[in-house]
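Data deposition worksheet. Section B asks for the primary sequence of the deposited chain exactly as it was used as input, without tags or linkers unless they were present during the calculation. Section C holds the resulting structure in token form. Section D is free text for depositor observations; keep each observation to a single sentence. Incomplete worksheets are returned to the depositor.
Section A, Depositor: J.P.
Section B:
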Amino acid sequence: QGLLAESGGGSVQAGGSLRLSCVTSAASVGWRCMAWFRQAPGKEREGVASMDNAGRQVYADSAKGRFTVSRDSANSALYLEMNNLKPEDTAMYYCAAGSTWCSLLQSEYSYWGQGTQVTVSS
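Section C:
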């Protein structure tokens, strides 16, 4: 069991919604930055959204207006509400933590979950 564990993935039709969750077994750490990344088959892993413990959010252009990132009050869980899903959103979604800058650069994150699969059919 790693520090981060994602859940909530699944298969939906285009236009549908999913809510991803990421819980950490290290709640006492109080991560400053947590983020969602995704990786589609044959593509590089890309940042989707990040949030710091003060509530500041960063979104990739592909996520703006459709996805919402949030954290629980204890800053021990991260969520991603995804609406109006498109086939191009199909990917493995990963939770990440440990960055200082809360960007969408994967190189900045030290801790990763195992991922949860999201499949959107047309």
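Section D:
The radius of gyration is 13 Å.
The longest strand covers residues 18-24.
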